[in-house]
Amino acid sequence: MINFNKYPFLRLLPAFGIGIFVALKYNLTPYFAVVLTLSVVLFVSFFIQTIINKSYKLRWLIGLNIVFLFIAIGASATLINKQSQSSGNSSLITSPNGLFIARVVETPIERDATIKATLKLIAVKTEDSLVNLNDKILAYFQKVPEMKTIGYGDIISFSTTPATIDPPKNPGQFDYKQYLSDQNIFFQVYLKTESWFLTTYKKQNPIYVLAYQLRDHLLNVLTTHQLSGEEFAVAAAILLGYDDSLPAYLRKGYVAAGAMHILCVSGLHVGIVFLFFSFLLKPLKDKGIQGLLKILILLLTIWAYALITGLSPSIQRASLMISFVLIGKLFGRKGFALNAVAASAFILLIINPQNLMHIGFQLSYAAVFGILLLHKPIANLFYFNNKVLSLSWDATALALAAQLATTPFVLYYFHQFPVYFWLSNLFLMPLSFVVIVTGMALLCLHFLPYLAPLLGKSLSALIYLMNSGIQWIETLPHSVIKGLYINGFEFVLLVCLVLLLIFLIRKKRAMFALSAALIALFFMVSFTHRNLENSRQISLIVYDLNKTSAVDFVLGHEHILLADSSLVNDTFTKEFFIEGNWFEKGLSSVPAYLYFDEDKFDNPFLLKRKQFIGFGEKVMLIWEKERYCRDSLSYRPKIDWVLVRGKQRENLQQMLNGYQPALIILDGSVPYYLAKQWKETATKMNIPIHYTRDEGAYVFNFNEDIAVKSN
User: What are 137's strand-pairing partners?
Assistant: First the structure.
């Protein structure tokens, strides 16, 4: 039974979060000022009336008013944070001929061709004046051998004008612009070597400097003690939260096994670090001066570890929760875990309301609440006399509790489900405990001549075993079910369903079962309706991709992808730019492929001959050099779409000599300078033209007989 009177933060957190969400998504600044004022007035008046009349009949109104009060407080805190994170001079930032001064606020990340860094604009110098700024931007530095070294806290100046971040160009594509805006980043800039200058000034937080230096030192400890390649990458991620060297295929394997939480430093890691150092401090007594010293050392250790690992939301949550428990112990009070977790979320959201929109934040809290509320009820379903079986079932129950609570978020954000999460957690949980303890022992005792090399070899062997197990699980049939798309409405229904199931398990009341069945019915109706709509779809999509081409021909749940052969094995491009649309429209993630260089292709709903494609009573022509028409033909067939791809020079007149195009489509493989020539000539000749780089993917819905812009 959950007694909510014991968990004030748990009761207030949903209202506070709703206020933050509304303020982040909608521009309602003046309205919330009014709501906040009215909420305070009403709360005070109801409270005074209750005291005077000594009646509790209206206390539900006070509770309702408190909800509105915290919605308004959450919204107000968000708006204040937004204003403090921006100077409001966006027009000045994007205006040319300015000299910008900026500070590097995070450790730069090295990529293949660039170095990525988050900058905080300090000021911009124009011809007229020097204007102070306070805006974060994303910078990509050109990486060359002679490049100047930059780091956290460096002050730089540059002359390149920042640009706004483009919205997604393809339907269903990951909205990177929204992702950055949730972090108060609205501009980006690419800095060539000659366009920026490293000043001699620095502005650093000494705590962060110490943390970064310590992390670099500990990374060096790993490399000098028998760890390299995959083993080093995983050790750095698990122990120190440094995942820059983690290979993409290995990361994908952990995701497929439902064990990504092992690599992402989270509450599991903080808990193990806490237990490890509690064991080391066991000689100290729990009371008196020694008890106080023990708690202070543990608090310092936990937050030092949190700093080293980058202060991610999950680390902050776990560190705050354990800190509350320790402080409660110091004052002789037993803390409630649910209230401690909710309080940590409350504090993190007050410090930075944008945390609410971070996927890691949502998954972390969902998993912890799921474990706290569901682990014991699930574990109590079965009882085993055998200790090994009992521990195995307890670990499985823990994984089931976390997975049930996080499933709505996993489906909504990633559109997939790891089938063997229970199997991976069964051996990974104890193995990761040993890995973290061994790793911490190595980091703490690396100066010992004989013990440190032994710990290094043991850690490398343990991680090798863990990686092998993950890769084996990934090879199992149907290890990941992809394409499990749900929309925003269905996501809310699933979250409500999970909450009702938790109440049903905890309180066992018929009304929760009835409510859960009703929510499940709504979900099935929404899912079925969307599936029926997708079964009737007939559409054509010309995607916007960099240096390559792809065209989708969709009929119901079937589709044929016309593409370059190189795209078939380009997993990143497909996953980032295209698969989102496939999942949303209920299409297979393994389409029938049709290549541009194929001369003949026959399908019940698509026909290709040379450069001509027939689809849904419409015709597309792939325009290439060999299609040039030098002389005007007496009969020029009408072409619905002419697709221009690659580095095709403008030759519109030669196209018109042989064809009558209704629309010319330039995809993302056409460079800007050539697209400009095509657009200028087409405009003069009054011929419609669509350039995907500027207007987004071209989408034509046959059922509506209209073209839709993706952005």
Answer: 119, 187
**Of the ranges 64-68, 337-341, 462-466, the best mean pLDDT one:** 462-466
Q: What is the largest CA-CA distance in the chain?
A: 102
Spatial separation of the C-alpha atoms in residues 442 and 94, rounded to whole Å: 49
Cα gap 244→111, rounded to integer Å: 9
Distance (Å) of CA 446 to CA 144, 308, 441: 35, 17, 8
Q: Is 607 in contact with 613 (CB distance < 8 Å)? A: yes
H or E stretch covering 541: strand 538-542
Query: To which H or E segment does residue 467 belong?
Result: helix 451-475
pLDDT, tens digit (0-9, with 9 covering 90-100), for 156-201? 999 899 998 889 999 999 888 888 887 888 899 999 888 898 888 8
Q: How far apart are CA 617 and CA 605, in angstroms?
A: 10
Extract the runs of DSSP E, i.e. beta strands, from 323-389. Answer: none
pLDDT, average across residues 511-536: 92
Distance CA 121, CA 101 (A): 6
Q: Tell me the C-alpha distance between 39 and 72, whole Å.
A: 8
Residue-wise pLDDT for 307-321, tens only, equals: 777 666 667 777 887
The residues, any chain, with a CB within 8 Å of residue 396's CB and separated by 6 or more, are: 422, 425, 426
Q: Which residues pair with 417 in a beta bridge?
A: 481
